[in-house]
């Protein structure tokens, strides 16, 4: 096998050939490739039918398993598969082309199973590209950098379109890994820089194509070409087909997102875009195309409920997303990315060299200001750019970075008039009266007052904070600045350092630099460098001297350490709900102590001799014995009104047996009725128990039947008019029941209509 510490491109391996003989081959050889077919990628189904979902899941699992197998291969086998297996590159290229982007994923109806498989394939593809972009995996497994660059360039493992797609698909959350990967590719193969230079004009052609599609004037050679009079008129955004409008917006969104992501991840590419005038073309395109496309999206009528797919086809009734809403979201995303791309180019090509202190800083500053001046005619672009990245911040940063501006003001001995639009890092206008009054000598004050004439007096008018009593910086921040400066310059007084900080906008680096270079302002040169810090006068305590009608009440937080917060609420107080009121058992707890005293029953209480009642006496201590006669019940004659004889008579009256009674049946019934009335009039002896109504009904029915049988009443026989089936003959009872029904059927219901009608007709009520 291969020897250690030898690059893969120089290794030789010995293995058995097809005929069983040993042969020596280079480590990178087509015969060492494994026979495996990588299937191309297909995007997730958009309609979500079960058959298509099942097909996608099976297809995606094949890709995930193949890529996981590829990643487990050794270093030499992996690169043999990458270099000589065309199906692998086709599979990876198909994923870069067809995989859904960020804005497409939120509109696709992905089920949990589809989303899980999609994430698995996404991760496997990224790890595969990451390994293909690494030329050194360990000390034993590596490729010579020059050979690595030739392999990936000649075999089209990477190219500029693939790198752009990699940034779009994997840039979110993996920007650092992608930056290292792309930087290694461009470092090992500088030919990619020339490919990037050739790609930028193609990117610019994208903007011309969009303008031409929208029927707008193009910037470039095509704009100067004369048009024939009979030439076909180009449709505008208001007259073009709806599908063409959707395709145009999707094309613009994808292009702008790709460019911004690539420049954000790989800033060295900004120089290539800058050299082709990208900063000049992008604002012009923004001003021409964006208002027209936004107007078309707002005013075009979208009657159907539709969604724009990645291919530009309008799919009906998909997830209830309107086309207008989807297009407006993508258009806003495109505008934001174009503005961010412009700021990226300005920062990396103009501001960054100035901040790093490179040569020709003046040239970069002039170029930056020239670009800002070129933005002025493009009103819409200027407003959107200034909204996201205020131009005043860049100008302020430029003023701090250029040393000529500060030196010019220091040379003239004048203070710069600050405006409210300046950055916070510059000098804030004015300081506190307590901090500034003792820092200036009378001569400086007089000279300053003499210079404030004309326009200067207007510019130096006291602004916010000049007459205030609060310093522009907080106490801890100010102490931190002073401690930093005193660590380097311990011989200077705090009062002098405070004056310097106030003069130079509380910029500690600028103060230290000017002190060491002896370039202080004339007003500071006249001050004593050992001047101590002025004593700050304590303000009178207003709270202790105030008088208010609410002093010393239960909510006076200035005089009370604890306040019952439960009695304080905001807005209308919510009433107690019925459930909370029923669940409140506080009254039970209050009564618990009272009833606990009745739990203990004491028959005898032993009284110790000499014990006396008092505060600490036994609760069971009794009073002294009282021998007074108790005549409470003397007036009551107990048993005086009781009848003599058997005590049962008082509870149950004497009743004569029914056998010995004399009298007729009617007298007995009257006597029973009288007894019932007496029972009803005397409710004391009535039984209060309520029996079951069903039982009472059964008893009443039985009693009624007994009475009827006793009186000789014969109950009516149930009627039977149905009889036997036809052909079997009928009984006499059936004939009688049928005759009775026929004779009496006019008594009920509405069977006498004819007789009543005849009666009305005879009386002349109905005309005949």
Automatic annotation (TrEMBL):
Residue intervals of the CUE domain: 477-520
Biased composition (Acidic residues): 620-633, 667-679
PANTHER family: ACTIVATING SIGNAL COINTEGRATOR 1 COMPLEX SUBUNIT 2 (PTHR21494:SF0), ACTIVATING SIGNAL COINTEGRATOR 1 COMPLEX SUBUNIT 2 ASC-1 COMPLEX SUBUNIT P100 (PTHR21494)
GO terms, molecular function: ubiquitin binding
The organism of origin for this protein: Gambusia affinis
Superkingdom assignment: Eukaryota
Name of this protein: CUE domain-containing protein
Transmembrane segments: none
SMART domains: CUE
Any one Gene Ontology BP term: regulation of DNA-templated transcription
Stretches the record annotates as Disordered: 408-429, 609-768
Biased composition (Basic and acidic residues): 695-704, 735-745
């Amino acid at each position: 096998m291969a020897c250690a510490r030898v690059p893969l491109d120089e290794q030789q391996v010995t293995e058995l050939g097809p005929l069983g003989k040993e042969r020596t081959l280079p480590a990178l050889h087509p015969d060492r490739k494994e026979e495996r077919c990588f299937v191309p990628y297909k995007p997730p189904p958009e309609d979500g039918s079960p058959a298509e979902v099942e097909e996608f899941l099976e297809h995606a699992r094949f890709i995930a398993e193949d890529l996981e197998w590829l990643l487990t291969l050794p270093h030499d086998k992996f690169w043999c598969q990458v270099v000589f297996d065309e199906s692998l590159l086709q599979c990876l290229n198909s994923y870069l082309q067809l995989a859904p982007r960020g804005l497409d994923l939120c509109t696709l109806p992905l089920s949990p199973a589809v989303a899980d498989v999609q994430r698995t394939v996404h991760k496997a593809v990224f790890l595969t590209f990451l390994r293909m972009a690494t030329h050194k995996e360990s000390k034993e497994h590596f490729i010579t950098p020059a050979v690595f660059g030739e392999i990936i360039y000649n075999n089209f493992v990477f190219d500029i379109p693939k790198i752009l797609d990699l940034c779009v698909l994997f840039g979110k959350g993996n920007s650092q890994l992608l930056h290292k990967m792309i930087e290694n590719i461009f470092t090992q193969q500088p030919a990619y820089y020339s490919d990037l230079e050739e790609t930028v004009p193609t990117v610019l052609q994208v903007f011309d194509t969009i303008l031409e599609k929208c029927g707008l004037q193009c910037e470039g050679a095509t704009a100067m070409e004369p048009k024939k009079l009979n030439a076909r008129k180009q449709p505008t955004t208001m007259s073009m087909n709806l599908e063409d409008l959707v395709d145009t917006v999707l094309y613009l969104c994808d292009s702008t997102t790709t460019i911004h992501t690539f420049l954000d991840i790989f800033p060295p590419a900004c120089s290539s875009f800058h050299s082709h005038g990208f900063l000049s073309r992008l604002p012009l395109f923004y001003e021409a195309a964006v208002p027209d496309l936004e107007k078309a999206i707002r005013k075009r009528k979208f009657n159907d409920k539709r969604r724009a797919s990645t291919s530009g086809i309008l799919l009906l009734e998909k997830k209830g997303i309107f086309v207008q809403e989807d297009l407006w979201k993508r258009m806003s995303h495109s505008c934001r990315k174009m503005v961010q791309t412009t700021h990226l180019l300005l920062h990396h090509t103009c501001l960054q060299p100035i901040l790093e202190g490179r040569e020709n800083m003046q040239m970069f500053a002039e170029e930056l200001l020239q670009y800002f001046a070129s933005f002025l005619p493009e009103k819409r672009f200027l407003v959107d750019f200034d909204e996201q990245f205020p131009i005043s911040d860049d100008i302020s940063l430029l003023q701090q970075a250029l040393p000529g501006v500060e030196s010019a003001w220091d040379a003239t001995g004048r203070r710069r008039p600050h405006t409210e639009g300046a950055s916070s890092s510059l000098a804030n206008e004015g300081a506190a009266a307590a901090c500034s009054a003792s820092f200036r000598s009378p001569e400086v004050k007089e000279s300053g007052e003499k210079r404030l004439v004309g326009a200067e007096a207007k510019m130096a008018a006291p602004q916010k904070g000049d007459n205030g009593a609060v310093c522009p910086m907080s106490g801890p921040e100010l102490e931190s600045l002073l401690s930093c400066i005193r660590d380097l310059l311990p011989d200077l007084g705090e009062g002098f350092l405070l004056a310097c900080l106030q003069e130079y906008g509380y910029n500690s680096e600028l103060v230290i630099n000017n002190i060491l270079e002896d370039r202080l302002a004339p007003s500071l040169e006249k001050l004593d460098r050992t001047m101590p810090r002025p004593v700050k006068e304590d303000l009178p305590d207003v709270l202790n001297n105030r008088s208010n009608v609410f002093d010393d009440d239960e909510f006076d937080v200035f005089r009370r350490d604890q306040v019952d917060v439960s009695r304080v609420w905001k807005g209308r107080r919510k009433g107690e709900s019925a459930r909370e009121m029923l669940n409140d058992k506080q009254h039970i707890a209050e009564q618990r102590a009272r009833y606990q005293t009745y739990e203990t029953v004491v028959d005898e209480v032993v009284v110790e001799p000499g014990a006396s009642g008092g505060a600490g006496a036994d609760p069971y201590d009794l009073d002294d014995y009282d021998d007074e006669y108790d005549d409470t019940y003397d007036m009551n004659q107990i048993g005086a009104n009781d009848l003599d004889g058997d005590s049962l008579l008082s509870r149950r009256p004497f009743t004569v047996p029914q056998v010995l009674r004399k009298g007729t049946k009617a007298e007995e019934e009257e006597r029973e009725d009288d007894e019932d009335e007496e029972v009803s009039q005397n409710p004391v002896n009535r039984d209060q128990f309520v029996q079951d109504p069903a039982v009472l009904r059964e008893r009443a029915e039985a009693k009624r039947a007994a009475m009827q049988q006793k009186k000789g009443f014969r109950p009516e026989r149930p009627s039977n008019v149905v009889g036997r089936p036809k052909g079997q003959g009928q009984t006499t009872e059936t004939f009688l029941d049928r005759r009775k029904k026929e004779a009496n059927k006019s008594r009920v219901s509405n069977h006498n209509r004819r007789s009543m009608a005849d009666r009305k007709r005879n009386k002349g009520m109905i005309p005949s």
